[in-house]
Structure prediction request, 371 residues.
Amino acid sequence: MTESSTPEPHASPLLDRHQALSAKIVDFAGWLMPIQYAGILEEHRATRSAAGLFDLSHMGELVIEGPEAGAGLAAALVTDPPSLAVGRAHYSMICAEDGGILDDLIVYRLANERFMVVANASNARVVSDALAKRLEGFKAVLDDRSLATGLVAVQGPRSLDMLGPLTDLDLAAIHYYGIAEGVVAGVAAQVARTGYTGEDGFEVFVDVRHVGNVWDAMLEAGRPQGMVPVGLGARDTLRLEAGMPLYGNELDRATNPYEAALGRVVKLNKRGPFVGREALEKVAREGTSRRLVGLTLRERGIARHGYPVLVDGAPAGVVTSGTMSPTLGAAIAMAYVPTAHAEPGTMLAVEIRGIPVAAEVVPLPFYKRPA
Prediction:
C-alpha cells in the first residue's frame, strides 16, 4: 500500500516573467499563479482607470468539432450553442442531473462545426471528462487544448487603444461576447471581447509556445499608458464589484442556476433533452428557498466568505464573497439568503467575530462601467 501524493502544480507558462516582476506566487487550482505584484489596491485601480494585464493560462480550453458538435453541446449544457452565430459567444453552465452546477463556462462558436468551451481551472478536468461522456453518440470530437493554449487578457477602459497597435484586427468591430481570428504581436491568435472584471477588454488565446512573446509585447506597449500586470487578488475584487460569481464561492455542485440568480442562462425553450433539464424545469416551476444577493454593510466591518447572515438575529444564510470595495469605498458582499428576504432594501445582518453588523440587500452588480 502506497501513500497518496498531491500532484505537483502546473507552472504558468509565464511564471518566469511573474517572478521577474516580483510577483507573489501561490498555488491556485493546481497552478502556480501570481496573486499580486505591486499590490491588490493599485492593480485594481489601474484596471478601472486604464488597463490591467492578466495571465489566464490556467483556464481550460476545450475544442469540440464535427457536424454534430452544436447538437452535442446543446444536450450537454443548459444553453443552446447551435443558436450562436459564428464569431459569437455566450455564458453557459454544465449541470448534473439534479441541476447542481459542475462549472460555469463561456462557449465560443469558432466556425459552423467548431466550438471552444472555456472552463475554470479548478474544473477543467471535470468538464472535459463530462463533455467527453455526454458527446458519445454524436458526430463530434473533443480536443482538450488546455495545456497547449496560453491565454492573456487586457481589461480596462483603455484596452482597445493599448491592444489595437499590436494586432491586424479591427478591435472596435468585435462585439461584446464576440471572437475573431487574427495576429497579435506577430502571433496567430483568437481575440475575444470578454472578461471577468466589469470593464471592456479582450482575451487573447495563442499557442502556449508563443504566449510569452504576446505578454511581453502587450506589457511594453501598455505600460507607458498606465497598464500594470494584475494578479488573482485584484481579479477577485474586480469581479466581485461587477457581481460576477466565482466557482467554489457563489457556484458549486450543491447550487442550481436559479438559486444563483442565473436562471436566465437556462434555455428551457430549446428543443430536445439536456442533462439536468427535468430537475431545472421543476426548480423554475416551484421556485427556490434561497437566492444569491448583493449586500452592502451599513456599519463598520468586512464580511468574508463563510460568515453567517442573520435574519431577526438568527443564522439564515451565508456570505459567499466579501471585501472592502476599492472603487465604491464600501464593504460589499454576495450571500445566499432566504428568498423571502432577498428583495433590495431588506435589512439583514452579518455576524462578524460574534457581532451582528447591519447589511442591506442591494441590486447586483455593485459596479457598472461608465457608458
